[in-house]
Amino acid sequence: MAKRRLQESIATLEERLSRGEIDREAALDLAAAYRLAGRLRDAAELLASRLEAGDPDWETCRACVECYHDAGQMEPAVEVLNRWASFFRDRAEFWMLRGFLLEVMGDWEGALGEHNLARQIAPHMAEAHYRHGVALMHLGRYDEALGDFLKTLRLRPSLVRSQVNVGLCLEALGRPKEAVIAFEKALAIDPECSDAHLNLGALYGELGQQALALEHCEQAMVLDPGSSEAAYNAALAVVERDPDQAVRYLKRAVAADPENLDALHRLGMVAQQRGRWETAAGYFRRVVERDPERSESLFALAVCYGKSERSAEAIETFHALLERDPGNAKAWFYLGVAYDKMGRSEEAREAYRRADEMGPARSGEDS
To answer: Which SS3 state, helix, strand or coil, does residue 193 take?
Structure first.
Protein backbone atom coordinates (compact mmCIF):
# COMPACT_ATOMS: atom_id res chain seq x y z
CA MET A 1 0.00 0.00 0.00
CA ALA A 2 2.78 2.43 0.92
CA LYS A 3 4.54 1.68 -2.37
CA ARG A 4 1.32 2.27 -4.27
CA ARG A 5 0.78 5.64 -2.56
CA LEU A 6 4.36 6.61 -3.38
CA GLN A 7 3.85 5.83 -7.07
CA GLU A 8 0.59 7.78 -7.07
CA SER A 9 2.34 10.76 -5.50
CA ILE A 10 5.10 10.61 -8.12
CA ALA A 11 2.54 10.40 -10.94
CA THR A 12 0.66 13.44 -9.62
CA LEU A 13 3.80 15.53 -9.25
CA GLU A 14 5.10 14.46 -12.66
CA GLU A 15 1.82 15.53 -14.23
CA ARG A 16 2.17 18.95 -12.59
CA LEU A 17 5.77 19.08 -13.82
CA SER A 18 4.63 18.43 -17.38
CA ARG A 19 2.21 21.40 -17.11
CA GLY A 20 4.92 23.68 -15.74
CA GLU A 21 3.23 23.93 -12.34
CA ILE A 22 6.13 22.70 -10.23
CA ASP A 23 7.59 25.27 -7.84
CA ARG A 24 10.66 24.89 -5.62
CA GLU A 25 8.85 23.07 -2.81
CA ALA A 26 7.05 20.72 -5.19
CA ALA A 27 10.35 19.95 -6.96
CA LEU A 28 11.94 19.05 -3.64
CA ASP A 29 8.93 16.86 -2.85
CA LEU A 30 9.18 15.07 -6.20
CA ALA A 31 12.94 14.59 -5.75
CA ALA A 32 12.32 13.14 -2.28
CA ALA A 33 9.72 10.77 -3.74
CA TYR A 34 12.17 9.71 -6.46
CA ARG A 35 14.76 8.97 -3.78
CA LEU A 36 12.32 6.83 -1.82
CA ALA A 37 11.58 4.93 -5.02
CA GLY A 38 15.30 4.41 -5.67
CA ARG A 39 15.32 6.76 -8.67
CA LEU A 40 18.36 8.69 -7.49
CA ARG A 41 19.56 9.82 -10.90
CA ASP A 42 16.09 11.15 -11.76
CA ALA A 43 16.02 13.06 -8.47
CA ALA A 44 19.45 14.57 -9.09
CA GLU A 45 18.66 15.61 -12.67
CA LEU A 46 15.35 17.16 -11.64
CA LEU A 47 17.07 19.26 -8.98
CA ALA A 48 19.91 20.18 -11.35
CA SER A 49 17.34 21.49 -13.83
CA ARG A 50 15.70 23.55 -11.05
CA LEU A 51 19.03 25.14 -10.25
CA GLU A 52 19.45 26.16 -13.90
CA ALA A 53 15.90 27.47 -14.11
CA GLY A 54 16.22 30.35 -11.65
CA ASP A 55 18.03 31.73 -8.64
CA PRO A 56 19.72 28.71 -7.04
CA ASP A 57 18.98 28.03 -3.38
CA TRP A 58 21.18 26.05 -1.02
CA GLU A 59 18.61 23.38 -0.10
CA THR A 60 18.09 22.45 -3.74
CA CYS A 61 21.84 22.45 -4.44
CA ARG A 62 22.61 20.31 -1.39
CA ALA A 63 19.85 17.81 -2.20
CA CYS A 64 21.05 17.60 -5.82
CA VAL A 65 24.63 16.85 -4.78
CA GLU A 66 23.48 14.26 -2.24
CA CYS A 67 21.36 12.50 -4.87
CA TYR A 68 24.27 12.31 -7.30
CA HIS A 69 26.49 11.02 -4.48
CA ASP A 70 23.97 8.37 -3.44
CA ALA A 71 23.70 7.30 -7.07
CA GLY A 72 27.48 6.84 -7.20
CA GLN A 73 27.82 9.76 -9.63
CA MET A 74 30.71 11.65 -8.04
CA GLU A 75 31.75 13.64 -11.10
CA PRO A 76 28.39 15.40 -11.61
CA ALA A 77 28.13 15.92 -7.84
CA VAL A 78 31.40 17.85 -7.89
CA GLU A 79 30.36 19.69 -11.05
CA VAL A 80 27.17 20.96 -9.41
CA LEU A 81 29.09 22.34 -6.43
CA ASN A 82 31.65 23.98 -8.70
CA ARG A 83 28.94 25.39 -10.96
CA TRP A 84 27.21 27.24 -8.11
CA ALA A 85 30.19 27.96 -5.89
CA SER A 86 29.91 31.75 -6.29
CA PHE A 87 26.41 31.65 -4.77
CA PHE A 88 27.28 29.63 -1.66
CA ARG A 89 30.96 30.18 -0.83
CA ASP A 90 29.98 32.21 2.25
CA ARG A 91 28.15 29.18 3.72
CA ALA A 92 30.03 26.79 5.98
CA GLU A 93 27.75 23.97 4.81
CA PHE A 94 28.99 24.46 1.23
CA TRP A 95 32.63 23.86 2.22
CA MET A 96 31.68 20.95 4.45
CA LEU A 97 29.85 19.28 1.57
CA ARG A 98 32.85 19.81 -0.70
CA GLY A 99 35.02 18.33 2.03
CA PHE A 100 32.73 15.33 2.36
CA LEU A 101 32.96 14.60 -1.38
CA LEU A 102 36.74 14.77 -1.18
CA GLU A 103 36.62 12.32 1.75
CA VAL A 104 34.60 9.90 -0.35
CA MET A 105 37.22 10.19 -3.10
CA GLY A 106 40.02 9.54 -0.60
CA ASP A 107 41.53 13.04 -0.73
CA TRP A 108 41.85 13.66 3.01
CA GLU A 109 44.30 16.54 2.64
CA GLY A 110 41.89 18.32 0.34
CA ALA A 111 38.99 17.56 2.67
CA LEU A 112 40.94 19.00 5.60
CA GLY A 113 41.32 22.31 3.76
CA GLU A 114 37.61 22.53 2.95
CA HIS A 115 36.57 21.74 6.52
CA ASN A 116 39.03 24.35 7.77
CA LEU A 117 37.28 26.97 5.63
CA ALA A 118 33.96 25.88 7.14
CA ARG A 119 35.42 26.34 10.63
CA GLN A 120 36.61 29.82 9.75
CA ILE A 121 33.20 30.84 8.42
CA ALA A 122 31.26 29.28 11.33
CA PRO A 123 33.60 28.93 14.34
CA HIS A 124 30.69 27.92 16.55
CA MET A 125 29.43 25.14 14.26
CA ALA A 126 30.15 21.85 16.03
CA GLU A 127 29.86 19.75 12.87
CA ALA A 128 32.57 21.79 11.12
CA HIS A 129 35.07 21.08 13.90
CA TYR A 130 33.99 17.45 13.96
CA ARG A 131 34.58 16.92 10.22
CA HIS A 132 37.94 18.70 10.49
CA GLY A 133 38.88 16.28 13.28
CA VAL A 134 37.82 13.26 11.22
CA ALA A 135 40.09 14.37 8.37
CA LEU A 136 42.99 14.82 10.79
CA MET A 137 42.37 11.34 12.21
CA HIS A 138 42.56 9.78 8.76
CA LEU A 139 45.85 11.59 8.22
CA GLY A 140 47.24 10.15 11.46
CA ARG A 141 47.37 13.54 13.20
CA TYR A 142 45.67 12.27 16.35
CA ASP A 143 46.84 14.96 18.76
CA GLU A 144 45.37 17.73 16.59
CA ALA A 145 42.22 15.71 15.94
CA LEU A 146 41.73 15.26 19.68
CA GLY A 147 41.62 19.04 20.07
CA ASP A 148 38.92 19.27 17.39
CA PHE A 149 36.74 16.61 19.01
CA LEU A 150 37.05 18.19 22.44
CA LYS A 151 36.03 21.55 20.99
CA THR A 152 33.11 19.86 19.24
CA LEU A 153 31.93 18.50 22.59
CA ARG A 154 32.16 21.93 24.19
CA LEU A 155 29.86 23.22 21.46
CA ARG A 156 27.58 20.17 21.44
CA PRO A 157 28.08 17.92 24.50
CA SER A 158 25.54 15.36 23.25
CA LEU A 159 27.44 14.47 20.06
CA VAL A 160 28.32 10.90 20.98
CA ARG A 161 30.33 10.14 17.85
CA SER A 162 32.72 12.95 18.79
CA GLN A 163 33.15 11.45 22.26
CA VAL A 164 33.90 8.06 20.68
CA ASN A 165 36.54 9.69 18.50
CA VAL A 166 38.12 11.26 21.59
CA GLY A 167 38.61 7.70 22.82
CA LEU A 168 40.02 6.53 19.50
CA CYS A 169 42.53 9.38 19.43
CA LEU A 170 43.63 8.73 23.02
CA GLU A 171 44.07 5.05 22.20
CA ALA A 172 46.13 5.89 19.11
CA LEU A 173 48.27 8.22 21.22
CA GLY A 174 49.10 5.35 23.61
CA ARG A 175 46.86 6.53 26.45
CA PRO A 176 44.58 3.48 26.94
CA LYS A 177 43.33 4.29 30.45
CA GLU A 178 42.22 7.76 29.35
CA ALA A 179 40.63 6.16 26.28
CA VAL A 180 38.58 3.89 28.56
CA ILE A 181 37.28 6.94 30.42
CA ALA A 182 36.39 8.60 27.10
CA PHE A 183 34.42 5.58 25.88
CA GLU A 184 32.63 5.32 29.24
CA LYS A 185 31.63 8.98 28.80
CA ALA A 186 30.25 8.08 25.37
CA LEU A 187 28.06 5.46 27.03
CA ALA A 188 26.90 8.06 29.54
CA ILE A 189 25.65 10.08 26.55
CA ASP A 190 24.18 7.04 24.77
CA PRO A 191 24.14 3.69 26.62
CA GLU A 192 23.38 1.95 23.32
CA CYS A 193 26.43 3.24 21.44
CA SER A 194 27.75 0.03 19.93
CA ASP A 195 31.08 1.62 18.92
CA ALA A 196 31.79 2.59 22.53
CA HIS A 197 31.00 -0.94 23.74
CA LEU A 198 33.14 -2.42 20.95
CA ASN A 199 36.17 -0.30 21.79
CA LEU A 200 35.78 -0.83 25.52
CA GLY A 201 35.72 -4.57 24.90
CA ALA A 202 39.02 -4.38 23.02
CA LEU A 203 40.67 -2.04 25.55
CA TYR A 204 39.61 -3.96 28.64
CA GLY A 205 40.96 -7.09 26.99
CA GLU A 206 44.33 -5.41 26.39
CA LEU A 207 44.34 -4.23 30.02
CA GLY A 208 43.77 -7.81 31.24
CA GLN A 209 40.22 -7.21 32.52
CA GLN A 210 38.63 -10.07 30.60
CA ALA A 211 35.26 -10.10 32.40
CA LEU A 212 34.66 -6.44 31.54
CA ALA A 213 35.96 -7.04 28.03
CA LEU A 214 33.47 -9.84 27.45
CA GLU A 215 30.60 -7.83 28.95
CA HIS A 216 31.14 -4.96 26.51
CA CYS A 217 31.77 -7.23 23.51
CA GLU A 218 28.52 -9.07 24.14
CA GLN A 219 26.64 -5.80 24.49
CA ALA A 220 28.17 -4.63 21.21
CA MET A 221 26.94 -7.84 19.56
CA VAL A 222 23.42 -7.27 20.93
CA LEU A 223 23.38 -3.75 19.50
CA ASP A 224 25.09 -4.75 16.24
CA PRO A 225 24.56 -8.48 15.60
CA GLY A 226 26.58 -8.32 12.40
CA SER A 227 29.74 -6.99 14.06
CA SER A 228 32.59 -9.34 13.19
CA GLU A 229 35.01 -7.28 15.27
CA ALA A 230 32.87 -7.55 18.42
CA ALA A 231 32.67 -11.33 18.06
CA TYR A 232 36.42 -11.55 17.50
CA ASN A 233 37.18 -9.44 20.58
CA ALA A 234 34.79 -11.58 22.63
CA ALA A 235 36.76 -14.64 21.55
CA LEU A 236 40.00 -13.05 22.72
CA ALA A 237 38.40 -12.36 26.10
CA VAL A 238 37.56 -16.04 26.72
CA VAL A 239 40.11 -18.02 24.70
CA GLU A 240 42.35 -18.81 27.69
CA ARG A 241 39.63 -20.10 30.01
CA ASP A 242 37.07 -21.43 27.54
CA PRO A 243 38.48 -22.32 24.09
CA ASP A 244 35.18 -23.89 23.00
CA GLN A 245 33.29 -20.66 23.60
CA ALA A 246 36.10 -18.77 21.87
CA VAL A 247 35.66 -20.99 18.81
CA ARG A 248 31.95 -20.20 18.74
CA TYR A 249 32.67 -16.48 18.82
CA LEU A 250 35.38 -16.83 16.16
CA LYS A 251 33.05 -18.72 13.84
CA ARG A 252 30.46 -16.01 14.36
CA ALA A 253 33.10 -13.41 13.46
CA VAL A 254 33.95 -15.26 10.24
CA ALA A 255 30.27 -15.75 9.37
CA ALA A 256 29.77 -11.98 9.71
CA ASP A 257 32.90 -11.20 7.70
CA PRO A 258 34.58 -14.01 5.75
CA GLU A 259 37.55 -11.66 5.23
CA ASN A 260 38.27 -11.39 8.96
CA LEU A 261 41.73 -12.94 8.65
CA ASP A 262 42.54 -12.43 12.33
CA ALA A 263 39.56 -14.61 13.27
CA LEU A 264 40.52 -17.29 10.74
CA HIS A 265 44.10 -17.32 12.01
CA ARG A 266 42.94 -17.57 15.61
CA LEU A 267 40.66 -20.51 14.71
CA GLY A 268 43.72 -22.19 13.24
CA MET A 269 45.69 -21.53 16.40
CA VAL A 270 43.02 -23.11 18.62
CA ALA A 271 42.86 -26.19 16.38
CA GLN A 272 46.65 -26.35 16.29
CA GLN A 273 46.90 -26.23 20.08
CA ARG A 274 44.53 -29.20 20.21
CA GLY A 275 46.61 -31.20 17.75
CA ARG A 276 43.97 -30.97 15.01
CA TRP A 277 46.53 -30.36 12.33
CA GLU A 278 44.35 -30.84 9.25
CA THR A 279 41.63 -28.57 10.63
CA ALA A 280 44.19 -25.95 11.56
CA ALA A 281 45.79 -26.18 8.12
CA GLY A 282 42.42 -25.48 6.53
CA TYR A 283 42.05 -22.22 8.44
CA PHE A 284 45.64 -21.08 7.81
CA ARG A 285 45.30 -21.95 4.12
CA ARG A 286 42.21 -19.71 3.87
CA VAL A 287 44.23 -16.87 5.38
CA VAL A 288 47.22 -17.15 3.05
CA GLU A 289 44.98 -17.54 0.00
CA ARG A 290 43.63 -14.08 0.81
CA ASP A 291 46.92 -12.59 2.05
CA PRO A 292 50.00 -14.48 0.79
CA GLU A 293 52.26 -12.00 2.62
CA ARG A 294 50.96 -12.96 6.07
CA SER A 295 54.07 -14.70 7.38
CA GLU A 296 52.69 -15.96 10.71
CA SER A 297 49.89 -17.82 8.95
CA LEU A 298 52.21 -19.15 6.27
CA PHE A 299 54.61 -20.49 8.92
CA ALA A 300 51.75 -22.06 10.90
CA LEU A 301 50.40 -23.70 7.72
CA ALA A 302 53.80 -25.21 6.96
CA VAL A 303 54.09 -26.57 10.52
CA CYS A 304 50.62 -28.13 10.22
CA TYR A 305 51.58 -29.80 6.94
CA GLY A 306 54.67 -31.20 8.64
CA LYS A 307 52.68 -32.52 11.60
CA SER A 308 50.17 -34.09 9.17
CA GLU A 309 52.96 -36.02 7.43
CA ARG A 310 52.53 -33.86 4.34
CA SER A 311 56.23 -33.15 4.11
CA ALA A 312 56.32 -32.18 0.44
CA GLU A 313 53.69 -29.50 1.04
CA ALA A 314 55.50 -28.39 4.18
CA ILE A 315 58.72 -27.96 2.19
CA GLU A 316 56.97 -25.99 -0.53
CA THR A 317 55.29 -23.72 2.04
CA PHE A 318 58.48 -23.13 4.04
CA HIS A 319 60.25 -22.15 0.82
CA ALA A 320 57.44 -19.71 0.00
CA LEU A 321 57.89 -18.17 3.44
CA LEU A 322 61.67 -18.02 3.18
CA GLU A 323 61.46 -16.20 -0.15
CA ARG A 324 59.79 -13.37 1.79
CA ASP A 325 61.69 -13.80 5.06
CA PRO A 326 65.09 -15.46 4.44
CA GLY A 327 66.21 -14.66 7.97
CA ASN A 328 63.50 -16.77 9.64
CA ALA A 329 65.55 -19.24 11.71
CA LYS A 330 62.50 -21.30 12.76
CA ALA A 331 61.44 -21.74 9.16
CA TRP A 332 64.91 -23.00 8.20
CA PHE A 333 64.93 -25.43 11.14
CA TYR A 334 61.52 -26.95 10.41
CA LEU A 335 62.35 -27.06 6.72
CA GLY A 336 65.23 -29.27 7.77
CA VAL A 337 62.83 -31.48 9.76
CA ALA A 338 60.60 -31.84 6.71
CA TYR A 339 63.59 -32.77 4.51
CA ASP A 340 64.68 -35.33 7.12
CA LYS A 341 61.24 -36.97 7.05
CA MET A 342 61.59 -37.39 3.30
CA GLY A 343 65.10 -38.83 3.60
CA ARG A 344 66.69 -35.85 1.84
CA SER A 345 69.65 -35.65 4.23
CA GLU A 346 71.89 -33.21 2.38
CA GLU A 347 69.10 -30.66 1.97
CA ALA A 348 68.17 -31.17 5.63
CA ARG A 349 71.77 -30.49 6.75
CA GLU A 350 71.87 -27.31 4.68
CA ALA A 351 68.61 -26.09 6.20
CA TYR A 352 69.84 -26.85 9.74
CA ARG A 353 73.10 -25.03 8.98
CA ARG A 354 71.20 -21.95 7.87
CA ALA A 355 69.10 -22.12 11.05
CA ASP A 356 72.19 -22.41 13.24
CA GLU A 357 73.76 -19.37 11.59
CA MET A 358 70.74 -17.31 12.61
CA GLY A 359 70.36 -18.46 16.20
CA PRO A 360 67.81 -20.45 18.23
CA ALA A 361 65.02 -21.79 16.06
CA ARG A 362 62.90 -24.27 17.99
CA SER A 363 60.92 -22.00 20.27
CA GLY A 364 57.33 -21.30 19.34
CA GLU A 365 56.85 -24.32 17.12
CA ASP A 366 53.07 -24.16 17.29
CA SER A 367 52.68 -20.39 17.16
So the answer is: coil
